[in-house]
Amino acid sequence: MKNNWSSAFLPLTILLVLSGLTFWLRHAIELPEERKDGKNRHDPDYIIDQSKLVKLDNTGRLHYTVTSKEIRHFPDDESTDLLKPVIVFLHTSKPSVTMSSERAHVSRDGEQVDLYENVRILRAASPTQEQMLATMNNLTVRPDDDIGYTKDPVLITQGKSWLKGVGMNVNNKTQIYVLESQAVGQFESKTAKKKR
Length: 196
Fold this sequence. Notes:
Layout: H1 2-29, E1 46-56, E2 62-74, E3 79-83, E4 86-89, E5 97-100, E6 103-106, E7 113-123, E8 132-142, E9 147-158, E10 161-171, E11 176-186, H2 190-195
């Protein structure tokens, strides 16, 4: 009788270990249940058409405006997308600067705006300077700091003068635009301007 019990003990032990491993394996590879509250989806929680945001400086003067054809806010990452955005920086002693594109993405904290597709920077004409236009594919703007930058190719035109290069830093306070590399240009002389 002892032989029968000891010979049955080994297969029972093997079966018990296999069933324990099967149970563990089932739970180890089982995917977590998908949440049904919508937190994992990247869907907008609100959409605003034809919007205008106005930002004042510390003295209460108008600093800049942001208009767009459409705003979509996404709750999963607290980001915002804009369609046809236009940012206009207003200065009391300098020409206004307008930045526009086909679309934009605003960071979670609202500190950074990434402009995409057909980006244009238009500095209005002044009594001493002609209108300036800069075009590029992408531009990152920090509106509260009055700065922007891109690593993309840039073309700047002002009257009959032009300048192109790769990468640019923009300072709206000083209205200085610095190309980072491969700068090439052609400038109309003062004599040629006087003849016009």
